[in-house]
Amino acid sequence: MQNFNTSKENSFYAIGLSYKKADAEVRGCFSLDESAKINLLEQAKKSGVESLFVISTCNRTEIYGFAQHPFQLIKLLCDNTKGTVEQFQKVAYVFKNKEAISHMFRVGSGLDSQILGDFEIISQLKFGAKLSKSKGLFNPFMERLTNSVIQASKRIKTETEISSGATSVSFASVQYIMNTIKNVSDKNILLFGTGKIGRNTCENLVKHTKNKHITLINRTKDKAEQIAGKFNLCVKDFSDLNEEVNASDIIIVATGASKPTLDKSHINTNKEVLILDLSIPKNVHSNVTEIDNIALVHLDYLSQITDETLEKRKMYIPQAESIIDEIKLEFNQWLETRKFAPTIKALKHKLKDFATLELDAQRKKYSNFNETQAEVISNNIIQKITNHFAHHLKEDNNSTNESLELIKKVFQLETTTDV
């Protein structure tokens, strides 16, 4: 599959980096917020890239798109993040064509997640697709592939138990707290940041710790109030951060900022405090550990927590891979159809031209010429002929390219990739 015949560019690539080789600090350098994603897409469009979309989570940043060379996509990533090409080369991966398609299926299906079976990535994939579509950077190939990956993800989630049990970063953080802190239900807990991870963590805190001393702080207070209302929790203003930090026994930071939002200058207490940083890039400055009574745990450590649940999930990997293979086969068959669709379309136009010339000649010969009947008969014959050629091309996988060239030569066809 050297050329997909769906793009003006040569190849389909997946480029990026993930938790597998890049630590939190490096991943933070390549992290893309919403405005950076938009800037990247706009730059891609100006540089002539036809189709591309981006995903960026705490565990990975990836670009999927068409390019003559992967460096075009790598440059887009580095131009819109703090990361450098040199950093990228040390920890990144580049997949092309079939390998890129397979990688996207594994990512979207939770098989490549840091926590096996974590399907949160699929919402990021959907958002990336929607954003690219709004910028006119989403061709039919990309749309079909994305929909196929979403379909695989849904089937794996419903037909296997690979996502059974509560194992996610938000749950792992609560599990860590419960295993580390005695009498956790009596401790004062501060949750700073109420984005997606913050919301999930809050829900797990309420459900598993039975703690009623949970305070929420967010830069946008109404977002915190929406969550607090569900669980009857306390919300404080951002200006109260220092006071709440020093009143808390456990602090969870999930602010998603581009630089640390909590450092040792905020802390003035002699009691033991556990701080969990669930953010990428890191939102808690490492200087907090200079204070003897402070323990800091980062998301990367929490993500490594494995238990019986994860071991059980591994049993369902073959079943998940079988579902992926099935849907990937359907996608590849569609792809093969697209390869000859422009030729069939051009053939149909050619046959219609023949029919028009012949009908004009017959119309001049017969005064009682039946226009409607002649039109129906010619259209039916054209459809049967094109269907016959299409069926042959679908069945004859080994010589499709040769057959296409022969059809073009015999009928003197000029085709385009616009179908």
TrEMBL record:
Principal EC category: oxidoreductase
All copies of domain Tetrapyrrole biosynthesis glutamyl-tRNA reductase dimerisation, residue ranges: 319-413
Annotated positions binding NADP(+): G193, T194, G195, K196, I197, G198
Top-level taxon: Bacteria
Family matches, as Pfam families: GlutR_dimer, GlutR_N, Shikimate_DH
Domain Glutamyl-tRNA reductase N-terminal: 15-160
Keyword line: NADP, Oxidoreductase, Porphyrin biosynthesis
InterPro entries: 4pyrrol_synth_GluRdtase, 4pyrrol_synth_GluRdtase_dimer, 4pyrrol_synth_GluRdtase_N, GluRdtase_CS, GluRdtase_dimer_dom_sf, GluRdtase_N_sf, NAD(P)-bd_dom_sf, Shikm_DH/Glu-tRNA_Rdtase
Site, Important for activity: residue positions: H103
Protein family per UniProt: Belongs to the glutamyl-tRNA reductase family.
HAMAP family: Glu_tRNA_reductase
More info: During catalysis, the active site Cys acts as a nucleophile attacking the alpha-carbonyl group of tRNA-bound glutamate with the formation of a thioester intermediate between enzyme and glutamate, and the concomitant release of tRNA(Glu). The thioester intermediate is finally reduced by direct hydride transfer from NADPH, to form the product GSA.
Domain notes: Possesses an unusual extended V-shaped dimeric structure with each monomer consisting of three distinct domains arranged along a curved 'spinal' alpha-helix. The N-terminal catalytic domain specifically recognizes the glutamate moiety of the substrate. The second domain is the NADPH-binding domain, and the third C-terminal domain is responsible for dimerization.
Functional note: Catalyzes the NADPH-dependent reduction of glutamyl-tRNA(Glu) to glutamate 1-semialdehyde (GSA).
Assembly notes: Homodimer.
Protein's UniProt name: Glutamyl-tRNA reductase
